What we know:
Helix content of chain A is about 35%, strand content about 15%. Chain A is an alpha+beta fold. In chain A, strands 1, 2, 3, 6, 7, 8, 9, 10 and 11 form a 9-stranded mixed sheet that branches. In chain A, strands 4-5 form a two-stranded antiparallel ribbon. Chain B has a 5-stranded antiparallel sheet with strand order 3-6-7-9-8, covered by helices on one side. Chain B has a 3-stranded antiparallel sheet with strand order 1-2-10, with no helix packed on it. In chain B, strands 4-5 form a two-stranded antiparallel ribbon. In chain B, about 35% of the residues are buried.
Amino acid sequence: MTAVVMIEAVVIGLLSLLVVGLLRSHAEILRALHDLGVNLDEERTPDHTFRLRTAGGGAGPGSGHDHDHEEGRDHDDVAADLRTPPPGVVEAQRPVDDPASLGAALDLSGATPDGEAAAIGVVDVDHPTLLAFLSSGCVTCQDFWDAFGQGVTLELDGREVRIVAVTKGPGSESPGVIAQLTGPEFTTLMSDDAYDAYAVPVSPYFVLVDAHGSSILGEGAASSWAQLAGLLDRAVADRVSALGANRTRREVLSGSARQRRVDRELDAAGIGPDHPSVHQR
Amino acid sequence: MILRAHGLTVDVPRGWDARIFQRAESDVMSPSSPDTDAPTVPRSGITTPVLHLANFPLPDQRGDYGSGAVGLMRSTNVFLALVEFGPESLGTPLFAPNGLPRLRAAELSETIMQRPIAGMGGAQRFFTVSGRPFCGYAVVGSLVRRASSVALLNGALSRIDVAAA
């Protein structure tokens, strides 16, 4: 009997060690995700800063995001919430507080697949611009060609984002092949100069340029539509973060930092909860 | 940014879109007149270079005079087309004015538009520059803003250079 109890105690001890190990591993995963900007316990709010929609109202092909079925939210054209970026995004490295370190955007010039000489305005325009550096040969680019061709559109701060697909010039890409990939919903430019100007390391590669200036909000490589969505969402959150003090992503999205700041400034001015001005009608 | 093609050069204003193109001609040839000895011409007609300049995103599908693009314009937008004509137009009274034109706000009118759109206005000039006959066609997104819009158009016109034929 004593032997059975001892064996049972040893087994229970081993199982306890296993559970502790699993919990530690889980905590490390959560910490790593948090460092990447993913907060799994973050409450979803109805505030849409960056939205993805398609002409037909469906999610973009290859999207890893679920359709928006929450009650009380705007269902007009919202197909996916880009608030939670998936892991695996290869982003350009930069300090959050200094988006200018990504450099300034430049207008583009090159040729269209139809052979037109073309200049594309990117700087000081009244809409954000997504430059999608794609090629006809890479398999992962095909999802983006398909998505853009099917009318996937992006919005940032309520403004439609102009999508410009950029390939290498006619010396490296076949205009006939690119003409078959392009569509009326987006602009296509063939330009070696554009690849050089933006120092594009690989295809597919994406650069999001803000409206009314030349600020690059974010850039990086993404191999799937879901990763692109995460990349853009992250860039937008970083921009908001850069506008204020060093705030966490959660604070930016929830507005909790603003409430604390207001309380702090009211305290500094000598206005507390009992101050008469708070109760004036 | 400099854009150059078909003997047309434009220093594109910052943030503007521009295209220079010449449409493909049909390979099918037809007699130019009922006479049996008449020279043949492409069934599509003879095409000539076209320049489009706009301070808004130009769509891929556009007519020579901006159909497909003009309908997308907002009140602050301007559109400019330079359409070259064939050598048969050279020396005709219509194309007598020499050099790129300078537009006046007063000449912008809704009735001059290829397809009138309420509130918008257009202007059209025929001229010859560097021995090449052109039609210049401009559209403003709002006649109310015609003074500032015509300044944008004249600024764009001053950035165009036409090489001799």
